[in-house]
Each structure stands twice: as structure tokens, then as C-alpha cells.
Amino acid sequence: MTEQRSDPLLEVENLSVAFGPAKAVDGISFAVAQGEMLGLVGESGCGKSTTALALMRLLRDASLGGSAWLEGVDLLALDEAAMRERRGAAVGMIFQDPATALHPMIRVGDQIVEALQAHLDLPRAEARRRAVDLLRKVGIAAPEERFSVYPHEMSGGMCQRVVIAMAMACSPKLLLADEPTTALDVTVQAQILDLLRGLAREAGMGVILITHDLGVAAGMTDRVAVMYAGEIVEMAATEELFARPAHPYTLGLLRSIPQLDSGWDEPVPTIPGSVQGAERQTGCRFAPRCAKASEACRVPPALRDIGNGHSISCWNAP
Amino acid sequence: MMSDVALEPQVVAPPRRVSAFRRLLRHRLALLALIVLAVLVIGSAGAPWLAPHDPEELDIANRYAPPLTEGHILGSDDLGRDVLTRLMYAGQISLSVGIAAMLVTVIVGFSVGAFAAYYGGWIGVLLMRLTDIMLCFPSVFLLLFVAAFVTPSLASMALMIGLTCWMEIARIVYSQILVLKSADFIAAARMIGTPSWRIVLRQILPNTLAPVLVAATLNTANAILLESYISFLGYGIQPPAASWGNMLTNAQSDFQVDPWLAVFPGLAITLAVTSFNFIGDGLRDALDPRIRDR
Amino acid sequence: MARFLINRLVQSAILLLGVSIVGFALMHLAPGGPLAVYTLNPTVTAQDIERIKVLFGLDQPVYVQYLKWAGGLLSGNWGYSFFGGQQVREIVLDRLPATFLLMGTSLALALVIGVAIGTLAAVRRNSIFDYATAIGAMIALSLPTFWFGLLSIFFFAQTLGWFPAGSMTSMGGGGFLDRLHHLVLPVVVLALVLVAQWSRYTRSSMLDILDQDFVRTARAKGLKSSRVLVNHGLRAALVPLVALAGLQLPLLVGGALVTETVFSWPGMGLLFISALSTRDYPVLMAILMVGAVVVILGNLLADIIIAVVDPRVKLHDE
Asked: pLDDT in tens for each of the 294 residues of chain B?
């Protein structure tokens, strides 16, 4: 199949986020194509949420570096007013805890209407109609009645559906989903993720799915980027990554997932050491914990292509 | 009851996030306040040795002297008595009443709150209802009412103020102990047979100390304000004994002749109360585990 | 809602009952009892006192006295002043409007200014404005109200002559402007402490709220800052602020007493002081009860407002 090289929807170049002297994200680059779901995977504190918040410019007291091109505009260089126009309209975000993401004293329907009226010039009646449509679209039964309900009267799963409806209300081209199902029951997780993917496909929306759950990444995404200590260490198409993981960290992660067919007495493999102090490394940040570490690792590696659209940041692998 | 719909145990001080810098500044202010307070206390307690004159010493020739007059650095009053001296002696009374009243509020408030929380049942309900009822009366009204019928003295004033201001501490202690009561480590202590009094002393007291300490400091500030008002009206400390409040009683009539007489006692009160307030605030920052640095 | 109302009304009634008992107890526990002032008067003989006792019904058992007094209060018979003999109800109610005018204006002013300052301080946290207002509030809270009142009279009225030195109107009555002129100083004095409290509390509440998830969501939707602040932020702050207002009532009434004294404002507070000097029990008790009733009703109102505004408050199963 001939591939038409179309411009990526989002192109991030050398993004860095620093809070004072500490760098939470250190020069990462990636791209998201239209209609593509990119998984951003890593353990807590690796900088994946920070990346998303940086793209939305919702971080306080942070100094941003690099650029993030969306629809021909560098999001990081915009002034606040211009960025505000884009939040919700060009790029949307959904967060981890649906119960607290909605204002407890405003009806859910009105919160969606608010999102609509922030960017679209709609009369109230029309906005209301669209909001009800959105509620129906995200799978909420009896949307006309549910319009007037308060968040605390809904379950976590339903709240998250409302949050998704809100984020998609103005048809943004890019959606950032920060651990959208972590706070939900496992059964509900699958439903929400399917909903998300379905909606994204239908709208041709690009999605960055942030998760620490490799299983979720494997099942949902088109491409995956693995982050460690503020850097991307491996990036590839999902199938490729899980079939042929190359970076020692990724290998470690995958190995540490307990398997159904491992013996009872076998210890669960872990990655030795801890991520503490990784940002202070002058060379490769994973080197202290890496079995393949060598002299070469004193120089920080850069992402290099190892074929098949697969890139890793390591001197000694694959 | 009483808008407890949205209240947490510390209604007056919701948890705040304070930057490290602001915290330092707060502490510096609290430190400054501590110094100011120390000066006031030393000035008052040491009045017999430090004061330039005798408080009863009359100097009719020099009455209504403005500040910076020879021999009367802060001026003199209608009978020629030195203002600075009187301020220092008055400080003894005002500060003592404030602190003594605070002790009464702490003792009564703690007892009521602790009993209500620990024993629960109808005693608890009754005690806390009583607290609610007392909170309905504006304390100034109550205080004046009682003060009008009681011969005022340092002790009686401290007692009266104390008995009209203990409710806040009772509430704080009540909610804190209720939380602790269901805490696991208390259950464990009881299971191994620790007698009640010991549990109270070793486990409960230390944990309620912090908010009570803060409330006590702020209560002292309030007590000083109350005493000054009551004495100003003439129902508190009676002349010739001086308190910062009653030094202001004639301020209105004397204003035309010597406006300075109204300034210094009020300034002294403000300094003392501000100090206690800043110290209380500093304590709250230092002791509240819910405050996070940003 | 009806059930909630009834529940709260019953609770308030019980509180009122308790207040009346405590008040009555106070009256009789005072040394010398209600007739103390007579016993101190050497020309009044023991027989006179006996006669007065019977006249005022003071020879009856305590509970009978209480029931008569409480019954009287409810039915509008508040007794007769010990000195002058007029109906207590008339004397007290006559003064009520003046006190309400003072309290109401001060509260309204303090609310607007205090909440504005507190919100601004929260939005610009750690700025010069923030520090300055924090310290200012602290000092304002420490100023003895009566001293501040005195100084303002000295300064603005007697020295500068900008405002009248006291009373509600000029001699011989006055028009609206004249009343306004007289209202300024007392309101400023009373409102100062209130503004300080409101600004501090608003700042605390807003700081907490602005860090909440739903505010982040609102920003992510692309809402204007002002809308986020007011519709989401202040709305959520409404509940704790209204609760504070309820708790602040006793201080407000007490503060009104102090202010009225200093400014010779013809309200209930001033009446209380003059009744105090003549030990006029019936008047004193009536004012004490009115004060308590204002506090109870105010808290009831606060509870109702919170129940209306916050949908999470359970209205049905108490």
C-alpha cells in the first residue's frame, strides 16, 4: 500500500519542561499523525503527564523549551489569549479522576454547554441540543434526563464519559488523555477505552494516550513511546515494539509483567535499582540500572532509527 | 447544627499551601512579634524597677504634658501622672488578665470538649448543645451583662472573660478527639489494658495540643481586647488601678486638651494583640501538618 | 426540601429554648438577683423589696418565673422597664432598625471588599499585594474597634470636620444624604475587622479551590480566566464563605455594640449600655435574647443558602 506522506498533526521538537533547576522533561521529540493514537508509557514520575500539561500550557511556574507544532502554530510560543482559544477547540485534554474533574455544583449538561459556548457562537437552545447529542454519543442512556444531573449522582465511568463528551465538544484535532481509566473499575476501563478509540477514529482525531499500563498501550494504540526519567527511550509502532522490544528498560518492563504460565516458585523479575537521581546522570539515565551498560554510556545517547520505524536511545542495543 | 454542613474541624483555618518564602516571612514576623511581646512583658513585669516614676506620683504643675516633655517621655495625664509609667503598670494588669483568661478558656474548653468526645452518649450531646447555645450569645453582651453585676477585679475579669470564650476550644478539642477516638492506636492501647486516664494523658493530649495551642494564643489576643473594652466602659478594672483600657476612658473628654492621652494606651493594646495574633499565625503554620510547600 | 427546612427549624427552636434557659439562669445567678440595684440602695427598705418582689412576680418558684417570662417573650409581652415603665418591646424594637442598618451596611460592604481582596490575593499569590494585604488584615484584626472608632472621630470628625462625630442624624432629623453622611464613619469602623476576616478566609478558600481538578478542567476547556475564577472558583467558595458568615454573626452583633457606643449610634447596643448603667433587667434580657435570635436566624439562613447552592447537601435523609 502506497503511503501518502502527510504532515503530522502534532510535531514536538525537543520539548523540555523545567521547574526551577529540576528538569521534568528533557528534550523529547515525537509526532502524532491524524487519526493516530500514540501511547506515552512509563512509570510514575517519568514526565508523561507533565508533557501533556506542557502542551496544553496548563503548568504553573514552569519554563518550557522546544516547540510543539499543531496546525502550523507553535503551541509553546503562543501568548495566553491565543492558547486559550486553542484549548478545547484545537487540542483537548481529559484527566485521570473523573469524579473530581467536574464541578460539583454545576449540572453535567451545563458543563458541556459551557465548553461549547466557549468556542462556538451558539444560541443556548442549540448548545443544549448538541450537548444532549454528545451525551448520547458517549454512550449515556437517557441523555435528556442525564443532562440535568450533578456529578456526584453519577458513577465514575459515567463521569468520565461526560468528561470525554466535554473534551470533544468542539471537535479538537488532538486529544490528550492522561490515564483516563486508571481510576475506574477494570470492566469499565475497557468500555471507556473502546469508546475513546471509536470516537477518535470516527473524527479523525489524533490521540496521545498516557498510561503506565503496558496492557492498555498494547491493546489500544497505533504507536508507543516509552519514557524514562524525562526522556523518550524507545518509540515504535505498537506491534513492532511489543514483538521486538529493544531498549533495556522496555525489556525490563515487559519481563516484569507476571505471566500466567510462569512457575509458582519463579521470582518476578524486576529492574534493579531505582529511578531516584536519574535526572542527575550526565550520561544515559538508565545506565545505573542497566545490564548492558558500558563505557559508551557516559555519553547520553540520542534516539536513533533501527529500522521499521523503530527508534531507541541506547548505544548497546539491540 | 449551626452550619456544620460544610465545616471541617478547623473552620477558622482551612489548610493552605504556602510557599517556602512566605513561610519564612511568616516566621520572621512571628519572631518579631515574639520580641515585641517580650519587650511588653518585661516592661510590665519589671515596672517597679524600670518605670521612670511612681504610678501614683502627681505632678499637677505638669499635667497634660505632651510627649517628649522633660521627665515625661510619653507625656502626662490629667493629674500629671507619667503616661509611660502608667502604661507599664497597666500592662501588668492587661496582660495578666489576658493570659489568665486564656488559661480559663483552655481549661474549661478542653474539659468540656474532651468529656463530650470521650464519653459520648447523652453527656456528649448535652455538653456540645450547651456549647452551641453559648455560641449564640455575642460575647461582648454576655460579658458586659455579667460584669455589671460583679465587683470587678483582676481575678473576676479573667474568670468572666474565660467563661464567655471557651466554646471555640471546646469545639476544636471535641472534633479532634472524636477523630482520635476511632484511631487504631487508641483501640490497641485499650486492648492491652491501658487505663483510661493514661490513654488520655499519653495519647490524646499530645495530639490535640497543636490546634489548642494556636487557639489559646489567639484567645489571649481576644481576651486582651475584651478586657480593654470592658474597662474602657467602666465595668472592668476600676481606677485608680490602671489598665490599658481604662486609661482610655476619659480619652473622649480629654481629647480637646491632650489628644496624646488617647494614642498610647490604644497603641499598647494594638501591639500586644498584634503580637499574639502573629505568633498564633506562626504557630499554626509551623504545627499544621496539612500545609504543603509549593 | 420541606423536610430539611422543618428539621432545621426544629433544631433552631431547640437552640432558642436552650438560649432562653441559659439567659434566664444568668439573670438569676447574678449576685443580688434581679433586684440587686434596689438592695444596694439604702433608702429602699426590706419591706419595699418584698413588695416589689411580689409586684414583679419574683416570689414565685423559679420555673414558674421562667415559664411566665418565656411565655411572655413569645407572645410579645416583654415586660416593663424597671426605670420608666415603658413596654420593653417597644423600647427595644424601636432601636432595632438603626442597628440593622449599621450591621447590614457594614456586612455588605465588608463582603464585597473582603471577597474581592481575598480573591485577588489568591490569584496573585506571593505578590506584594498579597503580602501587604495579609499584614494589613492582621493588624486590622488586632485594632481595638472602640479605639479605632475614637481615633476616627478625633481625626475625621473633630479635627478635619469631614464627617459628623456621632448619632444617626443631625439635630432635628435629616434627609437621606444627612443619614448617609452620619453612616460613613461607623460603617467604616465596624467593617474594618470584617473586611480583614473575609479577605483572609477568601484567600485561603480560593487557594484551595484553584488547585482543585475541576478548575484545571475548566481551564482545559478553554474558558476565560474570569469565568473560571467566578463561575467555577467563587461558586465553590460560596459554601465555606456562607458558613463563615453564619459563624461571624455573634462578632458582628458584638462589634455593632462597640461601634454604637463610640458613635452614639441610637441602636440596640447603645440601649444595652444605658440599661446596664441602671441595671434595667428586663431591657437587658430582651436585648440579649434578640441578639441570640439574630444569630440563630442568621445561621439558619446560612444553612438554607448552602443547601440551595450545594447539590451535594442531602435534603432528604438527614
From this structure: 443 333 333 233 333 445 555 666 677 888 889 999 999 999 888 888 887 777 777 777 777 777 777 777 788 777 778 888 888 889 999 999 999 999 999 999 999 998 898 788 888 899 999 999 999 999 899 899 888 878 888 899 999 999 999 999 999 999 888 887 777 777 888 788 888 777 767 777 777 888 898 899 999 999 999 999 999 998 888 887 888 998 888 777 777 777 788 888 999 999 999 999 999 888 887 776 555 443
Asked if A244 is an interface residue toward chain C (Cβ–Cβ < 8 A), one would say no
Would the CB atoms of B3 and C247 count as touching at under 8 Å? yes
Contacts of residue A264, defined as CB under 8 A and 6 or more positions apart, other chains included, come to none
Which chain B residue lies closest to C307 (C-alpha atoms)? B5
Selected for mutation to probe chain A from C127, C209, C212, C214 (highest A CB count within 10 Å) is C214
CATH architecture of the domain with residue range B75-286: Orthogonal Bundle (1.10)
pTM: 0.83
**Does B137 sit within 8 Å of C250, measured CB to CB?**
yes
Name the closest residue on chain A to residue C236, using Cα atoms. Answer: A105
List chain A domain ranges.
8-216, 222-256+276-318
Alpha carbon of C216: minimum distance to chain B alpha carbons (Å): 17
Q: b or e along B252-290 (b: 16 or more beta carbons within 10 Å of the residue's beta carbon)?
A: bebbeebbbbbbbbbebbbbbbbbbbbbbbbbbbeebee
What residues of chain B lie within 8 A of the CB of C263, using their CB?
Answer: none
- For the residues of A268-315, what is the DSSP string, one character each? PP--SS-STTGGG-SS-TTGGG-TT--GGGGSPP--EE-STT-EE--S
- Name every residue whose Cβ is closer than 8 Å to that of residue C147 and which is 6 or more positions away in sequence: B228, B248, B262, B266, B269, B270
Q: A269 and A256 in contact (C-beta within 8 Å)?
A: yes
Under 8 Å CB pairs connecting chains A and C tally to: 76
Domain A8-216 fold: Rossmann fold (3.40.50)
Cα diameter, chain A = 67
Do residues B133 and B2 touch, judged by C-beta distance below 8 A? no
Strand, coil or helix: what is A192?
A: helix
CB pairs under 8 A between B and C: 172
Of C14, C154, C255, the CB nearest to B255: C154
Q: How many residues does chain B have?
A: 294
